[in-house]
Specification:
This protein has 112 residues and is mainly β. It is built from no helices and eight strands. A four-stranded antiparallel sheet has the order 1-8-3-6, with no helix packed on it. The chain has a four-stranded antiparallel sheet with strand order 2-7-4-5, with no helix packed on it. InterPro entries: Ena_core.
Length: 112
């Protein structure tokens, strides 16, 4: 740089893509951390080998946070996509003996 000045900065890399396989007997919680309100979009797949439907709850306040007043159910062998703003964890709950599937999320840390 001219004059010997050096720019110094720390780059904070936050993953904005989560793609995971889940297995549940009762509930699975997938948290992610964000300092600002984030928008998430993605899908939940419930494998056809699952023993019943799963219910997806969106939480605010981390893994122990309160669920938002909406949820959706994904039947065995089906998937459902979603877009939600202001959540920081997802709970996948089942009443069945066994369920498994995929969760894919893209996080937009600057939705506004």
């Amino acid at each position: 740089m001219p004059g010997g000045d050096t720019l110094c900065c720390q780059i904070k890399v936050i993953p904005n893509h989560i793609d995971t396989q889940w297995v549940a007997n009762h509930a699975v919680v997938v948290p992610y951390l964000a300092d600002l309100p984030a928008a998430i979009t993605g899908y939940v797949l419930n494998h056809s080998s699952s023993k019943g439907p799963v219910t997806i709850h969106f939480l605010r306040g981390g893994s122990a946070g309160a669920p938002l007043p909406f949820a959706f159910t994904v039947e065995a062998g089906a998937y459902q996509s979603f877009t939600v703003i202001g959540v920081d964890a997802i709970r996948i709950a089942t009443e069945a003996d066994f369920a498994s599937g995929e969760l894919n999320i893209l996080v937009n840390f600057s939705p506004f």
